[in-house]
Structures are given as C-alpha cells and as structure tokens.
Amino acid sequence: MLSFLVRHSLIFMFVVAILGFLFPSASQAAFPFLPVVLFTLMTLTLLGMKQHELIQRLRQKQVWGYALLHSIGFMLLAGFIGWLLSFDQDLLLAVVAVAATGSLFATPAIVRALGFDSLQAMAMTIATTLLLPVSIFITLILYQDDNVDLDLVSYFLRLVVFIFGPMLFSFMVHRFAPEEVLSRFLIRISPYTILLVFAFPFGLIGSFRVLFDTNFELALLYFLIATALCFLFSLISYCVYRKQGPAMALTAAITSGNRNVLLTYSIAGALLGPSFLPLAGALQIPTYLLPALTRWISKALLK
C-alpha cells in the first residue's frame, strides 16, 4: 500500500486536497498539528540530503538569483497587480505574503518523482526559505495594518524554531552520527515522509472551505487569485530558465508554484491578516495539481 502511494504520490496529493475540501471538519481538526508535521518534514528532508553537495549548490549564484526572483521579484509583481486591481488591504497583504513565501520542502521529492535534479531543487528551496525572514518582514512593514504591532521577539523566536532549528539539527546529526547508521535510518524512514506531505493540502484547505460555505462569490475570487498566482509564478520561472533546458526550466516552474504557506503562517501568524489562511487554503488545489500537469508537459517536451 505504501509503495503504491509513493508511486502515485503526485496524483494523491491533489486527491487529498479535494478530500480536505469535502470534509472541512476533519481538515480543521488536522490544522493545529501541521506545524509539528512541518518541522518533522523539514528535518527529515534536510537529513536525507548530502550536506557537502548541498552546500556546494548553495554557493552558486544561479541559486540565489532564482531565490531573488522567487521572493523579491514576485513580491513586487504581486504588489503591483494587487494595486492595479484595487485589492483591499487584507487581500493585498495576503497576496504579497504568498509571493514572499519560500518553496515547499516537499518540492525536492516532487522533482525527484518527475526524474529531475532533486538536489538542485533542495538548494533552491533552502535559498528561498533563508530569504523568507527578510521578504516577509518587508511585507509586514509595508502592507500590515497600522493598528497591529509586529512583535519582533516572537517573530525571531519562530524563525529560530521553524527555519534555523531543522537546519542546525540536521547539520549536527551529520557531523556526529555515524554515516552508516544514519543511512540505514533514512532508508527505512524515507518512504513514510510522503505521508507527512499529504497532511498539508488536507489540513490547510479547511479555511478556504469555511469561506466557501459563508461567501461563495468571495471564495471563488480567492480561488481564481490563488490559481493565477500559482501558474503565473510557474510560467514566468519556466520562461526565465527555458534556455537552460527543459529539466531546469520545469524544476524552476515547480519550485516557484509550490509555496510553503504554512511556514509563513507559522512565523507570522495573525499578523498576516484574515485573508491569508483562506487564500492559502485556495492555493492548495492549483499547487498540487501543478506537479501532475508538469509531468504531462515534461513528457511532451522531452520526446
């Protein structure tokens, strides 16, 4: 059963998002546990990477150039589009916060399932995650309601726990644990990490379902905005990296479309305003549909 889930994981991620929408009570019940799942997934993903090779990738200018496009570039674009379309302050804050968000830590697994370079995707994911403290801080300063104070102490404590904590733990384990023992452990545990990924679309979409039940027209607007953001970011990244070959272009497209909105919420919380969680929930359907579409596109391009 587990091997079947792993083999068809790209499809099941989308199916789980739909199940979360159909069963909102279960989705909302799962939501409080997602930060723990996020921390565990980030730690296990980092443990599974070859530290030396990963650091070498992180030294490449190309990786940080991508991270700037993923965060700052798309923040400026989202802010301009929101201003052009006269979004209200809460929705504008949510849209720019999504654009500031780093890539999902599940992205390397998705990229690996498509047969591309997962280590490159991991380097790009970490770079965007390391830029998140700066990008989300800028977002909060520029777009947050003046009546809400930014608690810097709480903000930086969450940064330490959810970003630097897993990175430091992974580094220490690789430094002191015997590689043979660590490798055996990772081989046994790695198939189960896909089950952790399923928790995100299932638990996050509940907030969108609540909006859907109370205000259908607004929910439809949020869904259209979320879908447009996901595919616009992916399309732009694909076009920017197209000259480097289809594999790199599609990797950039997936990494851009996959947004770790739970990490952003775990760091900034209610400071992101009331529109963020419904928009993040609406984002789950296009986010987890994108890899399945990318697999189909990649087969067509690589023929």
Automatic annotation (TrEMBL):
It comes from the Bacteria. The chain crosses the membrane at residues 5-23, 29-47, 63-85, 91-111, 123-143, 155-173, 185-208, 220-241, 262-285. Keywords: Membrane, Transmembrane, Transmembrane helix. This is Sodium Bile acid symporter family protein. InterPro entries: Na+/solute_symporter_sf (IPR038770). It comes from Marinomonas transparens.
